[in-house]
Each structure stands twice: as structure tokens, then as C-alpha cells.
Amino acid sequence: MTTSVGILFAIMGFAILCLAVVTFALARQVGVIHQRIGPVGALALSKTVRVGEKSPEFRLDALDGEAIVLGAPDPDGKSTLITFLTPKCPVCAQLLPALRSIARKESDWLRLVFASDGDPAQHAEFRSKSRLDDYAYVLSPELGMTYEIGKLPYGVLLDENGVVAAQGLTNSREHVESLFEAKRLGVSSIQEFLEHQEEGRVLIAGGSQQPS
After folding, report:
1. What is the DSSP letter of 160?
2. Residue 22 and residue 45: Cα distance in Å, rounded?
């Protein structure tokens, strides 16, 4: 009986050891995957109006009655970040403090515009509760359809001439800032930039293996 119990404990100990090894290997692999994908930034989806193209011009009335022009050259030479959101989007609500912070920090070259559609009264209440009174807030189904907005929150960055400089899903501050970085690098998205870098490394590696 004692021998059987000892064998059972030995088997259980071996099983626990194997499980620990497997768990460690999985954790390490997850870490490698996270390191590879990294904070690549906002995911740009296929759109009718693509990065590098001139945006159609929109003349809209904001919730406070102010006339807003989007897509035209900015008289102050600023870029415009259009953030599409909805009051019922929890991720949008979590992003708002970061957007307010970014708007203050980048105010010398950037203006922030919020966009959605639906009931004006509901959006006016949401705007007030979310402390967005200092920013333009427009309701325009046409604007959303032009950029084919299907997932929220979504950002469209227009440069000072009304050209789409970058666009993508903006679930975090890092995603929003990746739009600025994509504009600076002159690429459609950070993903595109990283893919080009990876292709370059592959070509260099392949070339180094060629006989001289």
C-alpha cells in the first residue's frame, strides 16, 4: 500500500513538473508574440478616401451652432483630428481624457473635432458630461459614410491642406499618437512602416547570404 501511494505521488509530482514546464513555455511564447507585434498603432481599415488623397469638403453646423469646415485648407495652417465616437461606446469614453490631454499638448499644430450622428439632444448631454465643450462636435451621417466608419472610436487625421494624412482605430492614446507618427513618417500607418522595415531586413539578410 505504501509503495502504491509513493508511486502515485511520484506520478503526480512528475505531472505537475511537466505542467509547470509547459506553462513557462507558453508564457515565454506569449511574451515573444507581444514583443513582435508591439504597440504598432492604430489599425487602418480599407477606406474609400485613402491616405494621401484629398478629403471631400464638408460645411457643417456644430452642436453649439458654430460653422465647421472639414477637408479644406486650414486658415491657421493646422491639421485636424476627426474622432468618430458615440455616447454608448465605453472605449470612446475611456479615450476622452487622453484626447483632451493631446488636444492641449498639440494645440500649436492640431485642432480636435468630434463627429457622430443621431439625436442632437443626446449628444449635447454627452458632450457636456464628457467636458467636450471646448471642442467642435458635429453630427453628420454623410461624414461617417464618406470615411466608411464601421468601428469606434476611429480617427481621421487631415493635414493643413485637407489631405488625409493618417487614419485608423484609436482604442488608446498610443493609437492616436501613432496617427501623428504616421503623418511624420509619410506612411499610411505604422503597420505599413514596420512591414517595410521587416521587408528591408529580409532583403538584407537574403543578400548577405548570396555569394560575393
Report:
1. T
2. 37
pLDDT in tens, 100-138: 999 999 999 999 999 999 999 999 999 999 999 999 999
Q: Is the peptide bond before 153 cis (omega within 30 degrees of 0)?
A: yes
Q: Any residues with CB less than 8 A from the CB of 185 and at least 6 apart, and which? A: 193
Which long-range contacts link 57-63 to residues 24+ away (Cβ below 8 Å)? 57/162, 58/140, 58/142, 58/143, 58/146, 60/138, 60/140, 60/143, 61/138, 62/136, 62/137, 62/138, 63/120, 63/123, 63/124, 63/127, 63/137, 63/138, 63/139
What is the identity of the amino acid at 86? Answer: T
- Nearest-angstrom CA–CA distance, 10 and 17: 11
Q: What is the pLDDT of residues 14-27, one digit of tens each?
A: 667 666 655 655 54
What distance in Å separates the CA atoms of residue 112 and residue 160, rounded to the nearest whole number? Answer: 13
Cell digits for 144? 461617417
Question: What's the CA gap between 60 and 68, in Å, rounded?
Answer: 5
State pTM to two decimals: 0.73
Q: Is residue 162 classed as helix, strand or coil in its secondary structure?
A: coil
Asked if 79 and 183 touch (Cβ cutoff 8 Å), the reply is yes
**Torsion angle of the four alpha carbons 60, 64, 66, 67, in this order, in degrees rounded to the nearest 10:** 10
